[in-house]
From TrEMBL:
It comes from the Eukaryota. The keyword Repeat applies. It holds the Pfam family RCC1. This is HECT domain-containing protein. It comes from Callosobruchus maculatus. Keywords: Repeat. InterPro entries: RCC1/BLIP-II (IPR009091), Reg_chr_condens (IPR000408), Signaling_Regulatory_Domain (IPR051625).
Amino acid sequence: MENTYTDVELDFFEFEPTNSTWATKSTDNIANRDLVQSMYDVLLQNKEIKVLPATPASYNDVQVLPSFQYDAPSVSELNQYVITLLTSQLQLAKEVCSSTQFAVILKQRLLILRRIYHALLVRYHDKGNCETQSPSEPSCSTISLLPSVPRDVTTGSQALLEIGVKTGLSFLFSLLQQNWQVSGILGIPSLCNSVLETTIDLIRKLPPLCLANDSQLTDLGITSLEQVSEFLKNAVLHETAADEKGKLLSCEILLSIALQRGSLRYLLEWMSMALDASSMNKVLSSKLFRSGISEIEGGKQTARTNQSSGNEEEMSIYKAALYLIEVLASMAVNYSGGCASEADAGPFENSEVYIWGSNSSYQLAEGNQELILLPTKSKTFQQVQQMEAGQYCTFAVHADGHVTACGKGSYGRLGLGETANQSTPKPIPLDRPIRQLSSSKGSDGHTLALTEDGWVYSWGDGDYGKLGHGNCVTYKTPERILVPFAGKVVKYVHAG
């Protein structure tokens, strides 16, 4: 047994009943000290580990070091005494360091990791080996608890495909650049532009957002898209990389790819490139741009779109980038305000709440069911205008403005005045109707609540002053934040 676990005896090697449960545990849970303690308690309750009584250490300096009052020590005796002293000091330092809170939690985390890895090893790796091993071979319980992580195996066909695609793209890029240069010198039309025009036509015929889900794309496909985008971006920005028509076509292809990938990141990258290229006074197809804006806005041809582009067949890249920024900003305002808008919310009497995920701390209010893999209609949460998933807890803002909470209660995160876990939603004592609530996701749990008249309440863990009360105290019930919000109407809160 390793020195780290001299005070703990491991008994889970032969403890099979709980292997299936531990195999489903996520190793990310050891990052949270509450979960570490709860999982360690489970190990103790199941008697999968036994804490051994510590052997009291005896430090008797009289026995270790003679006084040398009458006889001078020899060199070897001095060396032996110095080594004895240093060894005792080292042992004392180890025991002091191992008794700190950090060391205790670290030992618990290592034990939990070993338990999870052992369950995974038995479940996925050793089952077949245990059935066929001979009596002389070591049992499954003696095999290392930290199996090597299996690497993704690349088959010969996949390797050949990757080589072919990457070399083919490199060859294509070289041909395009060479053709642009030769056509510029000879003054003849470039064949590359015909290839790019065909590419644009093909992208237009694709279903919307067909490249949006990266999980449905292979690593080779994602890498190829990035290489194509980088080549086209260089063609647009570098003066001698392509002719004028080639730059325009490259810019339009990049916009089409950004729209197909469906992420704000790619639209922002295109706008950044367009603003960098604005000094070249290039123009885009207005029809293509209007179609892209229509896709972003959900297929609606708004008056703003028609007014901006008009009946012109072309528009400058600079104007297109600015207008796209305006559209995205306007949509962000509309969508962020729409979630809390009372005018658009309508009645909540018939609202339905769907829940899924972990119920380890009763945060889903589904009794003893620990895991819900698919969205399931909740029978508990009704007439709700907002649901907020916190750190192992859940809050519901109901139609009349009162708030209920359930789940883990440590650090007073539920705002109920206690730290016990709650298996069913209980009302939080708030004297004013709440219209919006936000709970932290990555800390020990604190929550902000915004009333209909703009007051802000907070409760939960107060470390680092995150509750806004001028101290680091934990509040188990909601407390209004007065400074500097006194006399002001707050519109929105977010706990981070």
